Amino acid sequence: MEDLPPVTLRLMRPADAEAVARMVRRAWAGRVAPDSSGHLETAEKVLADLERGRGFVAEAGGEVVASVRWVPHPGEEGVCEVHKLGVLPGYRKLGLGPKLLGLLEEDAARHGVREVRLAVRHDQYRLVEWYSAQGYVLDASLVYSSANPRTPPPFVLRKRLA
Known about the structure:
Structural class: alpha+beta
Oligomer: single chain
Strand order of the largest sheet: 1-2-3-4-5-7-6
Order of helices and strands: EHHEEEHEHEE
Largest sheet: 7 strands, mixed
């Protein structure tokens, strides 16, 4: 593996919106079906999430290399949904995904969240296994509030926070 610049994890800022949107599109490229909403990520969508919730970025050499966001569930108090956890290819397998999820969970809990939910595309079941290793449980009774209407319903996972 090539030498990578040091990675810093920090709270996402509105000024990061364009860099985060670009990173998500790059992280999805070639890995997720073309009808995935990640390919359509925009700074406006990132900003809309930050107006309602919060997010975290991993930065290396002045570049956003990974990020994740959470927003309150629109219909359930104390529940939030994870949006667009992504890591650029050169930074995968370094533990950034679990670290970002951990920051998100700690932050959400400080803001009164008792349960985190996330969606995994119907054709990305390997991610269900990855999230299960992070303590998330598949729950077929749940419907994701912001599911992509152009694709089959996603798998929904939940994790209760202490």
